[in-house]
Amino acid sequence: MTLDIARIRKDFPVLEQQIYNKPLIYLDSAASSQKPLAVLKKEEQLYLEYYGNIHRGAHFMADKATLDFEGVRDQVQTFIKAANREEIIFTKGTTESINLVAFSFGEAFINVGDEIIVSEMEHHANIVPWQMMAARKGAKIRVIPFEDNGRLMVEKLDELINEKTKLIAVCHVANTLGTINPVKAIIEKAHAKGIKVLVDGAQAVNHVSVNVVDLDADFYVFSAHKMFGPNGVGVLYGKKELLEQMPPYQGGGEMISEVSFEGTTYNEIPYKFEAGTPNITGVIAFGEAILYLEDLTVEAVAEYEHQLLVYATEKLMEIPGMIIYGTQAEKSGVITFNVEGIHSFDLSTMLDKMGVAVRSGRLCADTVMQHYNVSGTIRISFAVYNTIEEIDLFIAALKKLVMMLS
Ligand code: PLP
């Protein structure tokens, strides 16, 4: 399917503005994507027409909001092809989803001396919750390294896995290197030894078509805000039989069946893990983001972003002193780089003044920075609304700055 990018851009009016009198070039969608009008309008419509607290409604608006909210659970189930709707838990983001699993899986299944494997290319959100859990439970973290070219050394799992290994937590797509990891093979290897796997899909869901049943992932987590949805909404997919054995993460309303001072009983999944009033508006508007993405199709989006990736990589390589971190063929639309002799912060600040929004610094991935022995980098990332013309403008701006600064 060929996408009509000019038409798509009309759905994102935010892109039509000038920043410092220069046309905005938004190359930071891996941090957070912009939102199409359909998502914004849904939020507005909810607040204007039928806002009410969900699951406890004795009135029309609360009932309608509940129906819509639960409808989005069905949409997410279909989107990631989960077997059961109760395997979809709404959280406030990938970070909260991982913290939930680290706490709750840890309470249920981790004992002193057990081991958890993470990779060297993880976002901090897929390292620190495991470290906290390991400290609490007396467990140990082991690490799958990556090669300088961004390839995860999956073969090292044979050395890392032992009878103490309980869980592997790994990203589907790395937020710095862009590497698309062979998660299905990792899961197969892990399951052969009875080990569970959590896949961090924050950078994957809108670039890779995800089928959690085919992957056989035990947990799959992602955030709405990176896929055209609102911020403050995330998803935890977990296999039913695991979620049922795991204790609640937070206590409060909704997650209970009955409360008394003699003892409290908990609700069924997914509600057991959804204490308190959730982000009702955010979840309902997220439904529009899923529709938007399904309409474009993840496959067509990925193919288009790949063209942008290949073009931008070629153009960047023309710049003297260019170092690109992560050069795998299986790569999504992010490019992390440095220019020799120029500080990433100086470049990103000056790019901003030229209307180009990029991410710079440690990218929430200190272990990747440590791997390359750098204190910071610049990252550009693409979404379906970016164009070849924008890349040309960005490259021209970058070339000018590199001449000035070197
Ligand atoms: N994991 C990866 C791979 C990410 O890229 C991010 C965000 O950049 C996160 C986790 C954390 O996501 P959030 O801040 O939405 O919780």
Please provide a written account of the structure.
It is a single chain. This protein is of the alpha/beta class and 406 residues long. The protein has two domains: 5-35 and 297-400, Aspartate Aminotransferase, domain 1 (Alpha-Beta Complex), CATH 3.90.1150.10; 40-294, Type I PLP-dependent aspartate aminotransferase-like (Major domain) (Aspartate Aminotransferase, domain 2, 3-Layer(aba) Sandwich). The chain is 40% helix and 17% strand. The protein contains 14 helices and 17 strands. Helix 2 (37-50) packs antiparallel against helix 10 (280-296), helix 3 crosses helix 10 (280-296) and helix 4 (94-109) packs parallel to helix 5 (128-137). The longest helix has 20 residues, at 60-79. It is globular, with a radius of gyration of 22 Å. The two termini are 43 Å apart. The structure holds pyridoxal-5'-phosphate.
Assembly annotation: single chain
Q: Please mark out the parts with pLDDT under 50 across 5 or more consecutive residues, or reply none.
A: none
User: Structural class, judged by helices and strands?
Assistant: alpha/beta
Q: Percent helix among the residues? A: 25-40%
Strand content: 15-25%
| Mean pLDDT metric | 97
CATH topology of the largest domain: Aspartate Aminotransferase, domain 2
Radius of gyration: 22 Å
N-end to C-end Cα span: 43 Å
Count of individual helical segments: 14
- CATH superfamily placement of the largest domain: Type I PLP-dependent aspartate aminotransferase-like (Major domain)
Shape: globular
Total beta strands: 17
What CATH architecture of the largest domain do you see? 3-Layer(aba) Sandwich
